[in-house]
Specification:
4 helices, Beta-Lactamase, five-stranded antiparallel sheet, 5 strands, alpha+beta, 254 residues
């Protein structure tokens, strides 16, 4: 064998060994990679197996804690809603009661005022006096208790006999009362019952009541003026009694 053939033969054998070694290295690397992947997969599965029961236990424990809180929160919301409805109902009831109370007060106000006036006027005593100087005191008391601006006592021909201190337009009201007495007489002459009182209202919202009464065959007219408060024809009836008592005194001086 020639030296060149021997060289090529040795070289080929070396290359064959080298290629086998390289193939072995590659094969070993592939197997190591596969083994590493298998190990990682097993580790992941093992971690999941370990973690799942722990997580489930934690989730169960958490649900056990949160469930009462959730139920309590729902119960609180229900209570809050019921309380809100109750407060709304209470507020509406209060508003309705306040409105009803206000309406009743408006409706009953004239009746209450009339009863108050009648009670106050009926409690007035006839002042002890043997002349006309006692009448103004009585008329002042009638004006104060009855809420009148002007109180006037006149005879049937329109002559003013006494007034309260703050009376205004007394001659005019006395003249009107005389005309009313004449009109009442005509009504009586026609066969109708004789009127005893009349209430007038002018365009200035002034209410005037004239009450005719008789003492010892003489007729008198008690006139009272009010601003804005509606009066009934019998509003002065309680005040007539003390005036009659004062007029019935035997001694009078002018």
């Amino acid at each position: 064998m020639t030296p060149s053939a021997l060289f090529f033969t040795l070289g080929g054998a070396a290359l064959l060994l080298l290629s086998g070694y390289l193939w072995g290295i590659r094969q070993g690397r592939s197997e190591r990679d596969q083994l590493r992947e298998a190990l990682e997969e097993q580790e992941e599965k093992l971690a999941q197996r370990i973690a799942t029961p722990v997580l489930e236990a934690m989730q169960h424990q958490l649900n056990h804690i949160l469930q009462p809180l959730s139920e309590q929160a729902q119960h609180s919301q229900v209570l809050e809603e019921e309380l809100r409805k109750a407060m709304q109902s209470f507020s509406q009831r209060q508003a309705d009661e306040a409105s009803l109370k206000e309406t009743l007060q408006e409706v009953l106000a004239p009746i209450v005022e009339r009863e108050r006036r009648e009670l106050a006027l009926s409690a007035l005593p006839a002042h002890d006096s043997d002349d006309r100087r006692g009448l103004p005191v009585l008329l002042n008391a009638i004006a104060t208790e009855g809420g009148f601006t002007t109180v006037l006592l006149s005879d049937e021909v329109g002559l003013p006999l006494a007034t309260n201190n703050s009376a205004e337009d007394t001659d005019m009201f006395a003249g009107v009362s005389s005309l009313l007495v004449s009109m009442f007489d005509r009504i009586a002459e026609s066969g109708q019952p004789t009127p005893m009182a009349v209430v007038l209202r002018d365009d200035d919202n002034q209410i005037v009541i004239h009450r005719v009464f008789r003492v010892q065959q003489e007729r008198y007219v008690l006139t009272a003026v009010n601003k804005g408060t509606l009066l009934t024809p019998d509003a002065l009836d309680p005040a007539v009694t003390p005036i009659e008592q004062a007029l019935n005194r035997p001694t009078w001086s002018t």
